Amino acid sequence: MKKLLAIMGSPRKKMNTDKLLDVVLDGIRNSEEDVDIKKVYLKDLSIYHCIGCGACEKTGKCFRKDDMDELYENFNDSDGIILASPVYFNTVASLTKAMIDRCQVYWSSKYVLKNPSIDRNKKRFGLFICVGGAPYKEDQFDACTPVIDLFFRAVNTNYKGNILVSNTDVTPTWQREDITKNAYERGIRFFEGF
């Protein structure tokens, strides 16, 4: 059985980002894969901000004790990670960014200590879902994707791509058949090539 970690990084439940994530998860559930899905809402977790203290450069672990401890375990155990966030001020939501910043422990353990705190031999696939309320423009998600690329590298995950959706202030994701069909099919195919 494969394990999938689905991270909902929006502060709003049952809205565009959350509903689109659920469509992808429905696709995964209806695929031919046997998958244990764990969905977490960052809004419901207690995650302190990274303070750049450098403690993880000495120990490979964060000194802070909060719900990131469980997420660290989930990252390591997962065969797939889906991260979903709205775009706020041209980047991921602050809940999402706080979680990503706390993944500094992986960079420190890999590159400073040369002793990775995540299994580097485990194969993982990653997908990013990002939803923006504004009308589409070519560079709308340009500040998000480099951050997500580095996040997936930190958690040793093969970044398989994005689902990027604009103009949800006018037409929500659940009213757009082309978007939901694509998201569902991405779920069905998520573990292809695993």
UniProtKB/TrEMBL annotation:
Mind telling me which SUPFAM superfamilies this protein's record contains? Flavoproteins
At the top level of its lineage, which domain of life is listed? Bacteria
Q: Does the keyword Methyltransferase apply?
A: no
Keywords, comma-separated and alphabetical: Flavoprotein, FMN
Where is the NADPH-dependent FMN reductase-like domain positioned along the sequence? 3-112
Please name the InterPro entries in this protein's record.
Answer: Flavoprotein-like_sf, FMN_Rdtase-like_dom, ISF_SsuE-like
Report a single Gene Ontology molecular function: oxidoreductase activity
How far does the signal peptide extend, from start to end residue?
none
Put simply, this protein is called NADPH-dependent FMN reductase
Species per Swiss-Prot/TrEMBL record: Gottschalkia purinilytica
**Phylogenetic placement of the source organism:** Bacteria, Bacillati, Bacillota, Tissierellia, Tissierellales
